[in-house]
Amino acid sequence: MSRSSYATRRSSLLAVLPAFLASILLLRYLWSVGFDAVKQGADTSGGWREGNTAVGGVFNASIADGERSPPVQLHVNKRFGTKARYYAPPRDSHFADVPEHCELVHLHLLVRHGTRNPRAGDIAKFRKLEAHLRKHRQPHWPEWLVQWRNPYVEGEANALVAQGWRELAELAKRDVGRYKRWLGDTPGARHAGTWYASSSSAQTVNSARAYGSVFSGRLLPKRALHLVKKKDDKEISITDACPRWLQLAADKSPIKKTLAPFKKRYLPKILKRISRQLQMKVGNGFYKIAVKLCSYEYAHLGRVDAWCELLQPGISSADDADNSDDVVEGLDYSDFSEDVSRYFKSGGGRPLNERIGCLLLSRILEEMQAAAQSTDPRIKSHIRFGHVGTITVVLTQLGMYEEKPDLLNHHRQFRMSRISPFAANLRFELLRCQGKLSVRTLLNETPIRILGCPSDTDLCPWPIFASILKNRIGHWDYDELCRAVH
């Protein structure tokens, strides 16, 4: 090789070296903050465990190209409580769009984390069940049960999964479409006007990153999020930071008392049918594990033909009917049981739940008041990422869904699959409509009416809305309310 050719090639390599190094740094960054997708998702057999981990920024391109989550089957989805899949409004519906005669002044958005992996304790139970089934395998079992293996590992407990990432990215994409006129046409403009906060749990932090990857056009580093340790987080992890709430939650007697007549009437029949089908006696422990396996199988993969079919025969059929006084199957009962439990944990079942959202509601009111009084607010949207209790406690303090759950009420108000599925969201839009300020409240992208607001419109005049919040907040002191009783 001539000296001149060598020099030319050397200069060419030096020219591309910075770009190459930048690519390496970017890959390292995505590896570290992109939910450790490659590290968590790789199967020991060299394959990929579908649905067990979020694949970081990989979804950005597919979401931008219009890919959506598999369609939700409503007759199935309503039976999964807080493990239900998020049901987005149909593409051709426009009831979530800002009304034509209005402009957005400020957005306040509360978002539950997306679909996650089971907790470590549940995964340990799944592992033991796998060993038990392999030991007592029967030739007449359905093929899926004979072949079943626990797909979860305890090191990935609670981690946001691929479906969870997709839910938040899709939500952000819809929000860009409906709000970009006011919040910014470019990701940079939207990011500059947005304040993000999250509970310190990994699944909520990563949900914020998934949403931000589309809304702000970047994987949000932790420094871009307002984070507070769980035990001190009185605004997002509302219940977990409240010692008195933790004391009351440990008392299961109101839940057991409410469930007792239904448990006596329906659970033995459910267990008897499953035992007969498997030709193996099963008890309440097996039933509870099967419910969780069914729930996560559906949440992650949309699958209902295995554990779910065992619990609820015929659920795979679109003709699957509502429960009746005579027929209550495994998922009907488990869904109702969770609704009752959540009613006491964060609904109207305990007076404390109607008060401890005071700090968060005060913050929301302050932020909206500041926006209402400013001609050009720098922060145009406040977005917080939390948990089931974050949304449910706020709705409870606002006086929503106070009716006690009833198994035989097919359209019961307090139904967690509708109130707080994975990726649930509650938003307050401060709007200026024909020169006057109003607030529109939406739960899961569907307008709802706060008690005390006009009943003939989705818009609540700002003075009325502010007055309702002030009355609901009252003079409650979070620290005083949450002082443990010894």
TrEMBL record:
GO terms for molecular function: acid phosphatase activity; bisphosphoglycerate 3-phosphatase activity; inositol phosphate phosphatase activity. Its EC number is 3.1.3.62, 3.1.3.80. It comes from the Eukaryota. The keyword Disulfide bond applies. InterPro entries: Acid_Pase_AS, His_Pase_clade-2, His_PPase_superfam, Histidine_acid_Pase_euk. Keywords: Cell membrane, Disulfide bond, Glycoprotein, Hydrolase, Membrane, Signal. The keyword Transmembrane does not apply. It is found in: Cell membrane. GO terms for cellular component: plasma membrane. It catalyses: 1D-myo-inositol hexakisphosphate + H2O = 1D-myo-inositol 1,2,4,5,6-pentakisphosphate + phosphate; (2R)-2,3-bisphosphoglycerate + H2O = (2R)-2-phosphoglycerate + phosphate; 1D-myo-inositol 1,2,5,6-tetrakisphosphate + H2O = 1D-myo-inositol 1,2,6-trisphosphate + phosphate; 1D-myo-inositol 1,2,4,5,6-pentakisphosphate + H2O = 1D-myo-inositol 1,2,5,6-tetrakisphosphate + phosphate. Its main location: membrane. Disulfide bonds join C102-C433, C294-C308, C453-C460. Belongs to the histidine acid phosphatase family. MINPP1 subfamily. This is Multiple inositol polyphosphate phosphatase 1. It comes from Syncephalis pseudoplumigaleata. The lineage of its organism: Eukaryota, Fungi, Fungi incertae sedis, Zoopagomycota, Zoopagomycotina.
